[in-house]
Amino acid sequence: MLQALKESVEYLKKKIGNFEPEVGIVLGTGLGGLVKEIAIEHSIMYSSIPNFPISTLEFHSGKLIFGTLKGKKVVAMQGRLHYYEGYSMQQITFPIRVLKALGIKHLFVSNAAGSLNAEFKKGDLMIISDHINLQPESPLRGLNDSELGPRFPDMSQPYQKSLIEAGLQIAKSENITCHKGIYVAVTGPNLETKAEYKYLRIIGGDAVGMSTVPEVIVANHMGLPVFAISVLTDEGFPEDLQPFNLEEILATAAIAEPKMTSILSQLISSL
C-alpha cells in the first residue's frame, strides 16, 4: 500500500503544485453541491490518478476538487466509493489515506441515509455521534503498517465531540432541524426489509446507510479528527414502509443540501 500511496501522492503533488489542503471533505449521494461554494484551483478525475478506484455510480462525479472554502484550503471528494460496487475495503478507503498524505488535518464526511428514528423525519439532518458497523470486513484487516497507524486503533470517540457540539450550535442558530444520532453501516446495495429496519432500530440505530464507516475507521487509524453528517432522505419505519424510489431520494437530498452545506461551511471556517 505504501508504494501505491506514494505514486498517487506524487502524481497529485505534480498537478497541484504548492497547494496544501488543510481539510478533506467526502461528499455523499446527491450532496455534491458544496463544490459550488469552493473557489476551485484544481479539478482532477479519479480515473487519471494512479491506483485510485473509480466510482461506478452515475450520480457520483468521481473528481478530486482542490480549492478554498471560507478561507480554508480544502480537497473534496466529489463522489465516494462503496463496498457494494465490488471494491475491497482497502480500495474504498485508499483515497482517505491519500488525502492525509497530502496534508489534511480534519476530515468532513457527508452521506444520504434512511431514518430509523420516528422523531427524525425525511429531509432532516443528523450529525453522527457514533456508529454501529454491520459491514462484513474492516479496512484494517491484514498486515498493519505502523507508518500509517497502530495495529489496534482506539474507537472510543470516532467523531470529534467539539465539532459535533459546534455543528449542533450552527444548526440551531440557522434554524435548521438537525439531530444527533447513531449511524448503522450495512453492505447494500439492496434496501432493508421491514424486519431488518426493526432490528436496526432495536440495536440502537437512528439512521442506516451503506458508506461512511470504513472512511471513519481509516481516519481514526491515522489520527484524523472526523465530523460526519447525514441527510435523511427516506424513512425506514416498519409500520409504514414505502417502496424505494431513487428519484425521490435524490430530490430530498437536493432540497436538504443547502442546509448541510451551511453547517459544513461554517464549521470549516471556524477551524
Automatic annotation (TrEMBL):
Q: What is its EC number?
A: 2.4.2.1
Chain ranges of the Nucleoside phosphorylase domain: 23-268
The alphabetized list of GO BP terms reads: nucleoside metabolic process
Question: What are the record keywords, sorted?
Answer: Glycosyltransferase, Transferase
Q: Name one Pfam family in it.
A: PNP_UDP_1
The superkingdom of the source organism is Bacteria
Q: Any idea what job this protein has?
A: The purine nucleoside phosphorylases catalyze the phosphorolytic breakdown of the N-glycosidic bond in the beta-(deoxy)ribonucleoside molecules, with the formation of the corresponding free purine bases and pentose-1-phosphate.
Q: How does it assemble?
A: Homotrimer.
Return the similarity comment.
Answer: Belongs to the PNP/MTAP phosphorylase family.
Name of the protein this chain belongs to: Purine nucleoside phosphorylase
What organism is listed for this UniProt entry?
Answer: Pedobacter cryotolerans
